[in-house]
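Ticket #4471: structure output looks truncated?

Reporter: J.K.
Steps to reproduce: submitted the chain below (225 residues) through the standard prediction queue, then opened the result file.
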Amino acid sequence: MKKAGMIVAVEMAALKRKYGEPAEVYHDGVYTVMRYEVGRYELFVLSSGAGEIAAAAGTQYLITKYGVEMILNYGLVGALTEEISEKKICIVKAVCHYPFDLSEIDHVEKGRYTEFPDRYIETSRELREEALRIYPNLPEVMCASGDRFVGNEADKRALHEEFGADICEMEAAGIILTCVRNNIPVMSVKMVSDSVHGGAEEFYRTFEEASDVCVDVLDHILKGE
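Returned output as attached by the reporter:
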């Protein structure tokens, strides 16, 4: 069987509702990794906790320890525009780590890593195309990612204006950057849980339903349906 990894920040209940108890559970020091068999894959799932550093470390751990051949991620995000409305599922086309800033020393735009041609780091085109074959109406979006929950409408609109992003969240940059540097395909499916007008209250109200939809999309990818 092929090996796939899945990084989840905090929305683990949806995965357990979908797949039940794992075939095996590994307690590796600070990490607990669950192994499932889904379609043609052994799926190794790690709950990283919130934030870029934790997500990047968990991603590298799955790649190094378990030899996964791709990384999948799902989670909930905030909308930065009216178009990406509440409860709308989307695929991350590319991510910008917007707090990252070398502009004063390397004379590049804020959010850009100098190894890339611009400040957006792209996910796997092949995996996106596979998802769109199954779900042709899913929008591909630009994601602003940073270690902060953004609930304020003015802050959301400012992120959109400065970075051209459609959504914001706290882990995708760490996951995607790590995968690209390891030459590992990566796909991130997100569900908008709070609109451009909403914040924490709206996020928690839609948490479970939104997580379930994300898992369903990735399940189809793993099973090749």
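Triage note (M.O.): checked the attachment and the full token line is present. The domain at 2-223 is CATH 3.40.50.1580 (Rossmann fold).
Status: closed, working as intended.
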